[in-house]
Amino acid sequence: MMYTANDHTFAIIAYKENKYLEKTILSVLNQTVKTNIILSTSTPNDHILGLCDKYNIKYVINPNSKGAGSDWNYGYNACVTPLVTIVHQDDIYDDDFAETTLKYANRSSDLILLFTDYYEIREENAVSNQKLLKIKQIMNHLIQYKFMWKNRAYRKFILALGDSISCPTVTINKDKMGKDIFDTTLKNSCDYLTWVLMAKSKGEFIYIPKQIVGHRIYPESATSLNIADSSRSKDDLQIMMMLWPRWLAKIIHHFYVKSEESNKI
Length: 265
Prior knowledge:
Blueprint: E1 8-14, H1 21-29, E2 36-41, H2 46-55, E3 58-61, H3 68-77, E4 83-88, E5 92-93, H4 97-105, E6 111-122, E7 125-127, H5 131-140, H6 152-160, E8 171-173, H7 174-177, H8 190-198, E9 204-216, H9 222-228, H10 231-243, H11 246-260
Parallel strand pairs: 1-2, 1-4, 2-3, 6-9
Antiparallel strand pairs: 4-8, 5-9, 6-7, 6-8
């Protein structure tokens, strides 16, 4: 099928009172190609609902949150379009994200998901040449080429080395993958495990080598907090031990953790 703007939804997942939420909302509103937007929250409050009213954004409330995976599933399930991008409440989308995503989706014959490169936002400055970003670019490099889009062995191998896919850059084909795709067993690496499981499916994983999402790094971000208390590291090791012998998983995990140290604040 040929995807149009009507076939894509930004699903913003909001939590408590995040000071960056309005900037995130504006970034998806100001796209060169206007697609659909909804907001999902398990913590309704005046800040979140006030912004939805201000910008006329449809919202849904998850009455039974059981962690990040549960919240992402609720927002994802609420979308009625075939293409869904899960938006984190503190990240920024360049104005050509939707346009670029649709262009690549229309090159696919059997889309599972596509994801883009990204840059970091540190103290309101865009950082595009950080060490971890370079490592992920190398890992994902071959997946930008059409002849590799259906190569399940390669994408499973890459993900076995670590999570090279940044969650807010991902757009999922809901028509193919169905509902409740996100893992709910892990506290912090539910996205990583989800990509690992989806990589086994027949279909196309597409990497867009353009830095068109800004992932914000700051002390209160979920990424920084989870790295600081080592909870994400424990989840990542658990996933790697599903993919490698235990001794080898520990060695790979050691170097993976080292590469993530740049995300510490």
